[in-house]
Design brief:
alpha/beta, 376 residues, four-stranded mixed β-sheet
Length: 376
């Protein structure tokens, strides 16, 4: 190569770089005020940039075939499918949930997302300005991946969802002892004014009194607290299996949930909504309440709202404009509340020594405030 050619090659390389990166003026906030600064920008954002930034952005709608949150775990056939792609690319997967197909098309057209997952499993579209990503997806995808993702989800939902040792719902029925942790339920239920036996019934439903229980989603301990929730409650992650710390954090969380349902006047009814939210998430329960209100049902009566919690698994309901948080597996939540209430009824004969009763002593006659014996 002659020396005369080198300046020409260097010039061409500079022009190519300039075509990709332009200088533009942007306001930057500094300790001494706002200034105009030059920043390099690029119109190209394809596979290499996605890998550089470490994130693949997926847009979809809520639904069992696309994407939904289940006990803090992200599920849905399309989501699990694209998680495989993200793993292949070595990046994280972020989901943007849209209201409808019109919004999906708009995001795909303006390039604010990298890939759109339609309600039909395996139907994927890549933004037109990302040819390298499109080529990668075409080379990666195989139709059998859909069945594999569906099998993965089924396994997660039905096989050992909570790893635990199953203990008896009553440690000593004759002696009036529910569990080894009765004293903790009695201690930490008092500040939130719960019947300690109700908290014990919830604990059995969560973990069958196994302090080492862990769910497929990562919930841990007696009251099955998620790590992210533990962070908010001030429970160190390395102490999530500690019975006292776990029960104390759960009681704190139950109190917080109850405060968020202050619009429900009846204490017993309010507790039903708290239990449902502990299991299914407060946002889904609020969605069901909104639907019940619209249809002339009582949004403060669990019997009425439970019907809509079940209906949130149907497209005509989870796609309703009133619903802000999409699809949920409502049957589990309704069953959760019912089983806890049933077990609590069975525990009602157990008296706490700390409250001045002994299981062998008959309770003095007196009117009970409500059938669950919860203080109003």
């Amino acid at each position: 190569m002659t020396k005369k050619c080198r300046p020409y090659i260097l010039l061409m390389a500079s022009l190519l770089l300039a075509s990709c990166f332009e200088k533009k003026q942007e306001r930057v906030v500094t300790p001494w005020g706002e200034v105009l600064d030059s920043v390099e920008t690029s119109d190209e954002f394809d596979l290499h940039q996605i890998q550089q930034y470490g994130e693949l952005i997926m847009a979809t709608v809520s639904g069992p075939q696309t994407y939904y949150d289940y006990h803090g775990r992200q599920l849905g056939t399309q989501y699990l499918l694209l998680q495989q792609l993200a793993d292949r690319l070595g990046v994280g997967l972020r989901v943007e949930v849209c209201r409808d197909s019109l919004e999906l098309r708009q995001k795909l057209a303006d390039g604010t997302v990298d890939i759109v997952a339609w309600p039909t499993p395996g139907q994927l579209d890549v933004s037109g300005d990302k040819p390298l990503l499109a080529s990668e997806v075409k080379a990666w995808y195989k139709p059998e991946f859909v069945a594999q993702a569906e099998q993965e989800e089924t396994a997660l939902l039905t096989t050992r969802r909570v790893r635990r040792h199953v203990f008896s719902p009553m440690l000593d029925k004759k002696g009036g002892v529910i569990s080894h942790y009765d004293h903790l339920f009695q201690q930490y239920s008092q500040p939130i004014r719960w019947d300690w036996r109700l908290m014990a019934a919830q604990c059995y439903q969560e973990s069958t009194f196994d302090p080492k229980a862990v769910s497929f989603a990562g919930a841990k301990g007696l009251m099955q607290i998620m790590p992210a929730t533990a962070d908010v409650l001030g429970l160190p992650r390395d102490q999530m299996y500690d019975p006292e710390r776990n029960i104390a954090a759960a009681a704190k969380y139950l109190g917080q949930l109850e405060a968020k349902f202050s619009d429900i006047p009846g204490r017993v009814e309010r507790t039903n909504f708290v239990l449902a939210s502990y299991n299914g998430g407060i946002h889904h329960i609020r969605d069901a309440m909104a639907l019940a209100r619209r249809d002339g049902r009582n949004p403060h009566l669990w019997r009425d709202v439970a019907d809509y919690v079940l209906k949130l698994s149907k497209p005509q309901y989870y796609n309703d404009p009133l619903v802000k948080h999409g699809y949920m597996r409502g049957s589990e939540t309704v069953d959760y509340v019912a089983k806890i209430r049933q077990r609590h009824q069975g525990y009602m004969g157990v008296r706490s020594p700390h409250l001045g009763f002994h299981p062998s002593q008959p309770r003095k006659a007196g009117k009970r405030k409500n059938k669950y014996d919860i203080k109003e």
